[in-house]
From TrEMBL, chains A, B:
HAMAP family: ProA. This is Gamma-glutamyl phosphate reductase. It comes from Dissulfurirhabdus thermomarina. It holds the Pfam family Aldedh. The gene is proA. SUPFAM superfamilies: ALDH-like.
Length: 419, 419
């Protein structure tokens, strides 16, 4: 076994051992670790900025893009948001130990499910060092040990943040192995981590589609992920067109680079003539490029003719695919074919079609008369989120604290044996 | 792409297309398919027996073991139990469409989770043809399409059962692609199935540890599985020793070849002198071989000295590892090291130790004063089960109908956009 494999395997074993301790921590101690980390972040701001500066200098030296350097930067604003995030997670209710219901079997055995931590979680992410703190906070609050593997370009920043976390854990008497940052930048470390099926219970990759596919293809450990968000709004015939304009504008323009932004707009042919010109005027003003089907282009002269690759594409930019459809069935077929099971919305006044859309569309969030931008743990009321899952097992949609736990069965007997 | 790959990929595509239809079926139609299948099984018994006879003749010709031939046999008793199983699943409540709770966000958006089918499930199992019917029934009732891949030695039996299912689906107007049996016996078909990550949502392997490891190592699709059941009973100091005898006897002897049978018995040293001789007498009478630690062997003369491999071993037979421990902590450390996260029980009179054992032991079912044999969907009150999961994601413990579903978020708005 080479060095990287040995280092990573040892981290896994230590995390597994720590997980038993972490699972038994009281809510008060877990919250104390989070609040103490927040305090230390503020106190040690200079140290963090200095470490971050090393990463930034290296990134600039390599000629990495401005957007990349931007994501890598631990500005005062980013540090403040980490501090704020820690305080919010500390304030959330602790899911561990909840037992919604006990029931009694005919033989008198009392049975129930009780919520428990998953155990050890591996986070694999790119060069946003703030994820180190955000993910550690959520995993820890849900009673898990965590191994964090951020992008190699953020290594100095991540190790500085790991030090802060270690100080907070030590101050609260919690084993340091509960939160570990992989110190190896070699990509082989990721592969080694994905092989530790005995010591890791879950892997969460966060980043581009390439990273996520790499993790899924190489992992023997269960993975929660989403590849991409190709979200649609369907504007029904008879819809309130003013409402439809506000919703579509918000879904596309409010933050175009995120996974719950609208990438495709579907318009019923009976609404198209009245809706598209006004909508196009709003989009024109905001600099949105419309790529339309022939019927769209006939109504909106400045729309560009869409090519096949535009349908189902995640633009992550002020670009939008637009198609006029003959029926809601056509819209739903389109979504089944080109959607990504992320977020789908209908704007309608019709009760039956609203209910059918809600029931039949397969996406982690389906909305009636609201913007796709609401697919977010905070917006839906789960508190913070560690990501959004578009695969169905365990979690479908935003993953909050509860999704970082599982349940076991417990049974209270008085001597029952099986007949 | 070769033939096997093409056949399996085509089955996946057809299953995915059928899944949308199956998800929308009413409970009444799904139940009708199950009851109709039960009727056809009775009517077509001779046809099934004839197909099964071909498999049995081939198995005998290959010199396969009596136990193997036994599992392969569709006797009247096995056919009756399939019929009974279908009727029981039809009588269970339909989980699809349940929404335990809706909540309202400050902006007026009403949000909730609603239970939906997983989509397409792949079942990979060995040569018990009754699994074909049992698994199809559960998957279908939960609104899923299913692809069934049984052992190659059961191919004629499985295809005959598939025909029955097809007749029932057709009679109820449900697409035949909802339930498909892989007609290819080549093992390559399993590998091809495990690559269909776009068309399958879940794979459930059932069989020996070798099959399950093969599936986990080769699958890009989420897998729910358990490798083995190494279950323990810990007899605490001060326990009711008569109760402990009854529970340990039941856990070991009632059905030794199953995953929830006891494989290791841990006895507090203060209970050992009084408990072990009487327990050993019961076991002797039942033909149970005890493999003990030195302290056990000193008390029970006929106990064989255990070797290291006996600790944590799944005997699946009338053999038992026995260890005397100094404390409950030692017992829990032993369970953490040698257990398989399946089922663990304590026999005690002490309230605090009972609660600590329930809280700290990591297993899919933890019991106080009851036999490990209760880890079963039917026994715990879930209705039928499709298997027991010892990994924590999605399901931990017996998997009933609910575990064959997931939830999506829905939101009822009246024009909300994100600020």
């Amino acid at each position: 076994m080479n060095d990287v494999a040995a280092i990573v395997a040892d981290m896994g074993r230590r995390a597994r051992a720590a997980a038993r301790r972490v699972a038994g921590l009281s809510t008060a101690v877990k919250d104390e670790v989070l609040l103490r980390t927040a305090e230390r972040l503020v106190e040690a701001k200079d140290r963090i900025r200095a470490a971050n500066e090393k990463d930034l200098a290296a990134a600039r030296g390599k000629g990495l893009s401005g957007a990349f350097v931007d994501r890598l930067t631990l500005s005062d604003r980013v540090i403040d948001s980490m501090v704020q995030g820690l305080r919010e997670v500390a304030a959330l209710p602790d899911p561990v130990g909840e037992s919604p219901r006990l029931w009694r079997r005919p033989n008198g055995l009392t049975v129930g499910r009780v919520r428990i931590p998953l155990g050890v979680i591996g986070m694999i992410y790119e060069s946003r060092p703030n994820v180190t703190i955000d993910a550690a906070a959520l995993c820890l609050k849900a009673g898990n040990a965590v191994i964090l593997r951020g992008g190699s370009d953020a290594i100095h920043s991540n190790l500085a943040l790991a030090e802060i976390l270690q100080e907070a854990l030590a101050a609260c008497g919690v084993p340091g192995d509960a939160v570990q940052v992989v110190p190896v930048t070699d990509r082989a470390a990721v592969l080694e981590l994905l092989r530790l099926e005995d010591d890791l219970d879950l892997v969460i990759p966060r980043g581009g589609e390439g990273l996520i596919r790499f993790v899924v293809e190489n992992s023997r450990i269960p993975v929660l992920k989403h590849y991409k968000g190709v979200c649609h709004v369907y504007v029904d015939r008879g819809a309130d067109l003013e409402m439809a304009r506000r919703i579509c504008f918000n879904a596309k323009v409010q933050r175009p680079g995120v996974c719950n932004a609208m990438e495709g707009m579907l318009v019923h042919r009976e609404a198209a003539e009245a809706f598209l010109p006004a909508m196009a005027a709003d989009f024109r003003e905001a600099g949105v490029e419309m790529r339309g089907c022939p019927r769209t282009c006939a109504i909106v002269p400045e729309a560009v003719a869409a090519v096949e690759e535009d349908w189902g594409r995640e633009f992550l930019d002020l670009v939008l695919a637009v198609r006029v459809v003959d029926s809601m069935d056509e819209a739903m077929d389109y979504i089944a074919r080109y959607g990504s099971n992320h977020t789908e919305a209908i704007v309608t006044r019709d009760y039956a079609r609203a209910m059918r859309f809600l029931r039949e569309v397969d996406a982690s969030l389906v909305l009636v008369n609201a913007s796709t931008r609401f697919n977010d743990g905070g917006q839906l009321g789960l508190g913070a989120e560690i990501g959004i899952s578009t695969s169905k097992l365990h979690a479908y949609g935003p993953m909050g604290l509860e999704e970082l736990t599982t349940t076991k069965f417990i049974a209270f007997g008085d001597g029952q044996v099986r007949q």
